[in-house]
Design goal:
Rossmann fold; 39% helix; three-stranded mixed β-sheet; 322 residues; alpha/beta
């Protein structure tokens, strides 16, 4: 049985959250979004007769009680790729999930769609991956009717990655002279060899569609869905497509790999010295970035009828206007 009624959405002004809100409203759901800044929410989400906003912290029981009261389901899009300003993996990927599940039980809401990540598994070797998996474990064992979505690299006009790649292509931000990505080591010393990881970017609109379809299809209950786009590229192909399709790109700028293992070691050392924030990446980002981010999409296609667009097909629709 699919759900109908009001859906609570955490992280409603985030990249995935805002698109999930729009998709759910477009399908006739009522939406109650949890936000941290009402001013930002007004700019990002606008107004809608079926949209309500709750302002507060995702770990505050009172706020969560207000968010979930009368809701038939929860969509959790809260997550961070890097710790900063007191926002830790443990707080947002584990504690917040526990608090949400407790609030769901108190409110009588038993349906949750949780947005995780493609790199998450029991064998994860980064703080990000370990905390994300712990959050998933809590959801599986809570007794709620759950669906877990694991998207890979998500792209879209308003995504942070897309904005970063566009500025690299224009030579406006470091490293200025090339478009960087993390490469993976395929051969050892004395002759190390490096290779460009493969990536299967998924459009944020396809992720939002998967969220809504999960709520509307009973087959999705108790399932984990890897989500990836309809096209596999290596990082130079992806970055140079951005360069070739965005306005004001710097002529001749190329994609260049930075050894992921060495970058991870550098970030770890910087963190131990207390200057990790000076780098634009941390140890976990370097490790994950140097790994392939690809997955079969068969189950999502069959269960959710998801037909994800290829990166070039989707990105060509917005890059020229950025």
């Amino acid at each position: 049985m699919s759900v109908s009624g009001t859906i609570a959405v955490t992280g409603a002004t985030g990249f995935v959250g805002r698109h999930a809100v729009r998709e759910l409203l477009g399908r006739g759901f009522g939406v109650r979004g949890l936000v941290r800044d009402l001013g930002k929410a007004a700019d990002v989400l606008g107004t809608h007769e079926r949209l309500e906003l709750v302002c507060g912290d995702v770990c505050d029981p009172k706020t969560l009680g207000e968010l979930l009261s009368g809701c038939v389901a929860l969509v959790n899009t809260v997550g961070i790729i890097r710790e900063s300003d007191g926002q830790t993996f443990q707080k947002l990927h584990v504690v917040a999930v526990r608090k949400l599940l407790e609030a769901m039980a108190s409110a009588g809401c038993d349906r949750i769609v949780h947005v995780s990540a493609l790199s998450v598994s029991e064998a994860a070797k980064t703080g990000y991956g370990k905390s994300k998996f712990e959050g998933e474990r809590l959801i599986r064992s809570a007794g709620a009717r759950w669906t877990i979505l694991r998207p890979g690299l998500i792209h879209g006009r308003d995504g942070e990655f897309t904005k970063l790649a566009v500025e690299w292509a224009r030579g406006r931000i470091a490293p200025f002279l090339f478009m960087p990505y993390f490469s993976k080591m395929t051969g050892g010393f004395p002759k190390p060899a490096f290779e460009s990881p493969l990536v299967q970017p998924i459009a944020v609109e396809d992720v939002a569609s998967a969220i809504a379809e999960s709520l509307e299809r009973e087959v999705a209950v108790g399932e984990v869905y890897p989500l990836a786009g309809g096209e596999t590229l290596d990082w130079p192909e992806l970055l140079e497509f951005v360069r070739d399709n965005v306005t004001l790109a710097r002529q001749g700028i190329k994609a260049m790999g930075i050894p992921g293992d060495l970058a991870a070691m550098k970030a770890k050392g910087a963190g131990l010295l207390g200057v990790g924030a000076l780098l634009p990446f941390d140890e976990g980002m370097a490790k994950m970035g140097a790994a392939d981010s690809v997955s079969p999409t068969t189950k999502a296609r069959e269960h959710l009828e998801l037909a994800p667009a290829g990166f070039r097909e989707a990105a060509s629709g917005y890059l020229g206007g950025m």
